[in-house]
Amino acid sequence: MSLPQKRFFRQRAHSNPLADHSLEFPSCPSKMDWSEHFPLFFTKLGERFNDEENSMKTKKKVEFADVGCGYGGLLGSFCEVQVTVPRADINFKVGLADTFPEVLSLGLELRAKVADYAHKKILALREQNKSTGKYQNISIVRANAMKYLPYFFEKGQLKKIFFLFPDPHFKKSKHKWRIISPHLLSDYAYFLAVGGLLYTVTDVAELYEWEIKHLSEHPLFMRISNESLKGDATVDLILNSSEESKKVTRQGGDNKMGEIYYVSLFLFALVVF
Amino acid sequence: MTVSPQKNLPQFLITHPTDLSKLLVGYSCLLREFNLSSFNYKEIVAQTFKQDKRNFGLLVCACYSNSGDQVAIVNNLKELVLPRSGVKVCFSKDNKSILVADKAGHVINYCIEKTEITQKILVDTLSTITDMYLSVSNYLAVCDREGRIRVSFFPNAYHILSYCIGHEGAVTCLSFTSSGLRLFSGSNDGTVKLWDPTNGKELFSLEPFSTVHKHKVCDLQCSASQHVCVCYEGLSVAEVYKYSLTTEGLETLVCNMFMCVTLILNIFQLHVQSINTNSEVLQTVFDVENTLYILERCPPYITSYQFLEGFFSESSSEYLATDCYLSDLQ
């Protein structure tokens, strides 16, 4: 199976998150059939794995969520595209699939064609890497993260949640479409386990200010400074492996890399009340 | 300018939190407080209403404060008492703030302690809120058109306690039990479900009319005596169920297939009484002494049922709620 080509999956950049798209979602998290997404880790709903080792797998849950994953860059990039890694001491791994092979990661994307592309890409990557069994721990679902997250995840299920290069929605009337907003943050805090991390990166200064403001004001999130995260593999992934970041690199040029990206990181802290 | 007489029909009923003889009846255009012992009523008009009563707008909902001395009214004109296209209103336990849920998905907290009313958005679901309930244990439950029930703490509504997910259609009505530890919900998918709001677990699901045609639940209410009354859209019957919770075995719940008459599980015991009315039931409400009031679409509009010897039996209430004409107001 060959990798899909983007030119056959053209899609309008914006999609109204408040509209009633014809989306499929389970009636509750326990009724979700994860075997469609992670066939090696789950059996069809209701069946059980036969041997001991495999039955441990069914206890796994999705722990990393990439909201607005786009073409699936963070989850698993193309193998043949090499990005210049600024520091030689880090082994370059391909997306979340490789860096965290034991963890199930799920991408959520609203736009139909983009989600379709990413889905086909994952299937092709799995097919190409059958011998090593890679890419079995990543998947994508076409979902509206603003409305339907409770149908997929349970309380405290996620350990990391990513918002990479979200749509800035500059106009004031469109601010309510922004993925980071005070009330959606309460939702994300619900799905994150205590001590879970929320990552954002953007190249739009105004959106960065907005995100920092609302995340800092939210009582359940605490900021972690970027310095304490140097060397965290995830931060490198965010900066290098998503499709948007590669585009920004191409356009901006290497010497401007530090100014283009704004990374912020927040920890879901314990609430004492 | 003459006003053609408009039929002014009862739309909703509110019982008083402490005084058994008072009943608030909301018509399309006005609000009356009925005194059941003296058989008369008094009209309630808000101070800030405009002089011209014809611009009152349509009443949407109202509620008593917990002390019973104040009433909050929401109508469909946004500039009056509470400036929101409200769906539901309730008072907080300490009477210091009013919560209004509106059609845009917000729950606004109006602090009425001082003369200057300050407001703050507590919750922003992204779809129309259909019902809201603040329990005595300070849990705020909000349900919406998507079928989600969001239970959070109050006043720190940013801390979500649980999402009760399981309904397959819009959730139309919510009611906490009197202890605040269990939540009933009714939905357009025809089911009534019982939840544990602390962890979002669905404890029980009831679907009495599933055989022929799915009937949407339009209202349900719990009483202090552990009864819950459910009414269905388009049906002229109100179902009353009694539930009892044993204290042990709440974690190991086993749900079996159910029949509509009597069910015995290791946790709940339900008895069903069907109350037949003349016309479609719009709303049911209990008062503190477990008298059940049922509002229906056609005369006699409101009938009350006393709970005697294990059953609800009708008591006379002819003097209540006849339709009135708009010209009566002048």
Automatic annotation (TrEMBL), chain A:
Main location: nucleus
Taxonomy, superkingdom: Eukaryota
Catalytically driven reaction(s): guanosine(46) in tRNA + S-adenosyl-L-methionine = N(7)-methylguanosine(46) in tRNA + S-adenosyl-L-homocysteine
EC assignment: 2.1.1.33
GO molecular-function terms, A-Z: tRNA (guanine(46)-N7)-methyltransferase activity; tRNA binding
UniProt pathway: tRNA modification; N(7)-methylguanine-tRNA biosynthesis
Family in the record: Belongs to the class I-like SAM-binding methyltransferase superfamily. TrmB family.
Protein name, per record: tRNA (guanine-N(7)-)-methyltransferase
Organism encoding this protein: Zophobas morio
Lineage, broadest ranks: Eukaryota, Metazoa, Ecdysozoa, Arthropoda, Hexapoda
